[in-house]
TrEMBL record:
Residues 62-349 form the Sugar phosphate transporter domain. GO terms for cellular component: membrane. The keyword Transmembrane applies. It is a multi-pass membrane protein. This is Secondary carrier transporter. InterPro entries: Sugar_P_trans_dom, TPT_transporter. The chain crosses the membrane at residues 59-80, 92-113, 125-147, 179-196, 202-220, 241-262, 278-301. It is found in: Membrane. Residues 1-19 form the signal peptide. Keywords: Membrane, Signal, Transmembrane, Transmembrane helix. Pfam families: TPT. The keyword Oxidoreductase does not apply. Its main location: membrane.
Amino acid sequence: MVYLILSLGIFFFDHQITSTCTMRSSSKDDENDVETGKLERGREKFVRSNRVVSTHNKALLSGFAYCISSCSMILVNKYVLSGYDFNAGIFLMLYQNFVSVIVVSMLSFFGIISTEPFTWRLVKVWLPVNFIFVGMLITSMFSLKYINVAMVTVLKNVTNVITAVGEMYLFNKHHDNRVWTALFLMIVSAICGGITDLSFNAVGYTWQIINCFLTASYSLTLRRVMDTAKQVTQSGNMDEFSMVLLNNTLSLPIGLCLVLVFNEVDYLSTTPLLKLPIFWMLLTFSGFLGLAISFTSMWFLHQTSATTYSLVGSLNKIPLSVTGILLFKVPTSLENSASILFGLVAGVFFAQAKMRERSQS
């Protein structure tokens, strides 16, 4: 996490310098205004500079909260599935979504947030994308059990490649050469990483590739479904809180059916892990982390922009990969470490290329 803290620290320090210079210039203006009878204008500048500092502090805090929650979620899931050798990934997803539903419902009940009431028309519109959402979460659990965290973060770059191709064919969106170069580097890094992975597991890699396709499908279809869902809601709006509650609520019966289909009930009835209070605390904590990712991502996106959000998300993979290797004592080689670093740098390059592409359009 040292790299993350330094990155955010540089971001904060840069804005603090700008804010300090602004405050100093405001102080000089105040002295001049006392002499010229224009003190009020200096006070207004001082207030504006304080607002700038406050805005930067909120952006730093929200970005740090988002990075901590997203990193912690992946590491905790990895610890539950591999550290405890827990063989019920669907149940883990089901329980995490259940915790999210309970928390959001309580916040809505006490009037802290507002959510859209569920209607049959809304459920019918949202149900297809919810199947993709559940598949995305489950395949992520399955892959994380067999693959180390660093390789998961590199392989997730394949999602960007699939999404870019999907945007080109489905929405007729064209990307510039920088984006395609970054996508090519991602593919190369994923292939090199798999070849040099000392703990290579074909089952885990298969689940991760399926997860990449499902994640790309989810992002490509979500926007269209959101626009359709707004038309069938009572308020004509579909905010993030309603989306989180709807997604997680609809996933509960689907997850319960999959627990029965994959016969996780027999395992759950015999495993001694469910008799450990500390294990239940860990499962509940992971549920709160899943909800925290939704809230902090919305908060961070509101305080900054989509481009900053995507860039920080790419930078966030670097400390996550290093932490995953150190915590779980992953056997690695110089070649594998180089391919992982290459993939992470390619992800940052992709985020920067997308930022330039958006600014030009």
